[in-house]
Amino acid sequence: MKPKVTMIAWNQNDNYVVTAVNNHLLKVWNSSTGQLLHDLVGHADEVFVLETHPFDCRIMLSAGHDGNIFIWDITKGTKTKHYFNMIEGQGHGAVFDCKFSPDGQHFACTDSHGHLLIFGFGCSRPYEKIPDQMFFHTDYRPLIRDSNSYVLDEQTQQAPHLMPPPFLVDVDGNPHPTKYQRLVPGRENCADEHLIPQLGYVATSDGEVVEQVIGQQTVDQDEPGLEPSILDGMIRQLQLEQDQRTAADQESAPSGPQNGEGTPRRG
């Protein structure tokens, strides 16, 4: 088998570089000299997650499709902690992504079965207030590109980062109660009536009719027999107000040198 590098990560102070190879080894290199320092053995499948600790230059996290999560001391080339993501009755779950918290005391992982795994110190009480299934209602809405190749939401024709905060729904598209909607950044201080999305019915590809947030529907709302979406009206109104404020700011700002190149708007 010809070795291939699947992931690369620098440690916190850039003195070391860690590479994941498709022979399941992790290699630690001196970033200045290119010297190979350690081979880290433990994974049994390909590794696509390498995360450095936010302030401890010794620590590196790795995770892969074998369900293993390792915490390494890359200066010594040793294994510090190990967790195997075994799911009862289903075998192991491949780990797709991991991130440290800013304080370095916790890290969270997502797996192939849709689970969020949270590791850290102390009790789990702060996390017990969240429901078992959480999705944004816009998660699976299709995207398109405009004439400048910028990404737009297909239904509303708006850039996703300029759209209002989405609603939290379960796996079937049913919205969660308002106490959970306030957990979404940007909705902390909304009035209760703004935290209750409009529900509607839409037919799936296999003909089943399901209830879901109107904003998820991707059909043309101008088709006869379809009610206009209140949620989309709110989104358009917010976008219009933001465009008006942006235009007013541009008119009042002093003119500068122009380079002739268009740039995408940023929220």
UniProtKB/TrEMBL annotation:
SMART domains: WD40. Keywords: Repeat, WD repeat. Transmembrane segments: none annotated. GO terms for biological process: cytoskeleton organization; regulation of cell shape; regulation of transcription by RNA polymerase II. PROSITE patterns: WD_REPEATS_1, WD_REPEATS_2, WD_REPEATS_REGION. Pfam families: WD40. One of its GO terms (cellular component) is nucleus. Residues 238-267 are annotated as: Disordered. InterPro entries: Bromo_WD_repeat (IPR052060), WD40/YVTN_repeat-like_dom_sf (IPR015943), WD40_repeat_CS (IPR019775), WD40_repeat_dom_sf (IPR036322), WD40_rpt (IPR001680). Residues 249-261 have a biased composition (Polar residues). WD repeats lie at residues 1-39, 40-82. This is BRWD1 protein. It comes from Elachura formosa (spotted wren-babbler). The lineage of its organism: Eukaryota, Metazoa, Chordata, Craniata, Vertebrata.
